[in-house]
Design a protein that fits this description.
Length: 177
């Protein structure tokens, strides 16, 4: 049997060690969120996700923050990672050691990809939430699970929908150009 191990980073590993932009480098959103304030937070979290190496993508784990079908070359995106569950050995003969080893290795890699994606997404969501007062997310938060069942993509979509770009901000950005 192969002695192959796959590393799995925790939420804290990503949050504290793997993000090139730390939360302290991004201003806390105080007062009513605006497109300009949100843009800084969203850009920082997207930069952090791009910086995390992923063998399946040229843009790291950016797909966790948006629809991935438009991210990859030629429009071929990476589907979301899915929990592979427990290994199932039905149909694998006991004497087929090599086939079983290959199956277990593939299962282990799929499981690690799923856990790493889940943990990176949770760390990125934690990054985003750390920049806002929690009162702004009450309508998204569940009374029991709080923000645990809310994905990063849902959180970012909520921010973009709730506080869209204002005409004054467009004019301000045009002046800067």
């Amino acid at each position: 049997m192969n002695n192959f191990t796959v590393s799995i980073n925790s939420v804290e590993d990503y949050f504290l060690n793997d993000f090139p932009i730390q939360k302290e480098e991004v201003d806390q959103v105080t007062g009513r969120p605006t497109f300009t304030k949100n843009y800084k937070v969203i850009t920082a979290v997207e930069t952090n996700l791009i910086a995390i190496y992923d063998v399946r993508s040229q843009v790291g784990k950016l797909r966790l923050a948006m629809n991935s079908q438009h991210l990859e070359v030629g429009g071929v995106g990476i589907p979301a990672s899915v929990n592979p569950g427990l290994p199932v050995f039905a149909g694998l003969a006991v004497e087929a050691v090599e086939a079983r080893d290959t199956y277990l290795l593939n299962h282990q890699m799929q499981r690690a990809q799923w856990e790493n994606d889940r943990n990176a997404g949770e760390a990125a969501k934690k990054f985003v939430l750390s920049r806002y007062e929690q009162v702004y997310f009450q309508s998204l938060s569940h009374p029991l699970t709080k923000m645990k069942s809310v994905t990063l993509q849902t959180t970012l979509d909520f921010i973009k929908t709730k506080w869209p770009v204002e005409p004054e901000e467009v004019a301000l950005q045009k002046e800067k150009l």
